[in-house]
Amino acid sequence: MLLRLKKLIIYGLGVLFLIPAESAFAQKNGFTVVIDPGHGGRDPGAIGSSSKEKDIVLVVGKKLGELIKNNHPDVKVLYTRDTDRFVELNKRAEIANKAKADLYISLHCNALDRRKRSPQGVETFVLGLHRSKDNLDVAKAENSV
Questions:
Q1: Residues 48-60: pLDDT tens digits?
Q2: C-alpha 125 chain-centroid distance
Q3: In this model, does residue 12 exceed pLDDT 60?
Q4: What is the 3-state secondary structure (H, E, C) of the chain?
Q5: Domains and CATH numbers, the chain
Q6: For the chain: N or C, fewer Cβ within 10 A?
Q7: Distant-in-sequence contacts of 8-14, Cβ < 8 A, 24+ apart
Q8: Cβ count near 7 (within 10 Å)
Q9: What's the whole-model pTM score?
Q10: Residue 133 burial (CB < 10 Å; 0-12/13-18/19+)?
């Protein structure tokens, strides 16, 4: 399971290298990315037999930030949290809005019932630039507790 998780992280982070240097990162002076490692502190997120979502996404978030900084030094990288602490959802949004972030990346991991088949692939949710009822419904469903 841990090997599969490592492969998934490597594949996911490898996507960054598909972005050419002359991409939107380089074209816009002052591009800001906010990385949001989900959960944290008192909120563990999904709990596995030997890991917690909050810990995994924190490590992945920091690694992602370093990859962006190393490959795109002109990009400002901010984090909603860089330690194991709880940050309210509205505070996470406030951090991104205050920074006028051009890109907001929220990291999460799914849990799996071991009785079911092995997981494969990744999930990506992209919220469009324009507010719509569909976007709001997706956001409510994904953020419900």
A1: 888 999 999 999 9
A2: 10
A3: no
A4: CHHHHHHHHHHHHHHHHHCCCCCHHHHCCCCEEEEEECCECCECCCECCCCEHHHHHHHHHHHHHHHHHHHCCCCEEEECCCCCCCCCHHHHHHHHHHCCCCEEEEECCCCCCCCCCCCCCCCCCCCCCCCCHHHHHHHHHHHCC
A5: 32-143 (3.40.630.40)
A6: C
A7: 8/122, 9/60, 9/63, 11/122, 12/60, 12/122, 13/60, 13/63, 13/64, 13/67
A8: 10
A9: 0.72
A10: exposed
Question: What tokens appear for 38 in the block?
Answer: 């989900």
Residue type, 65: G
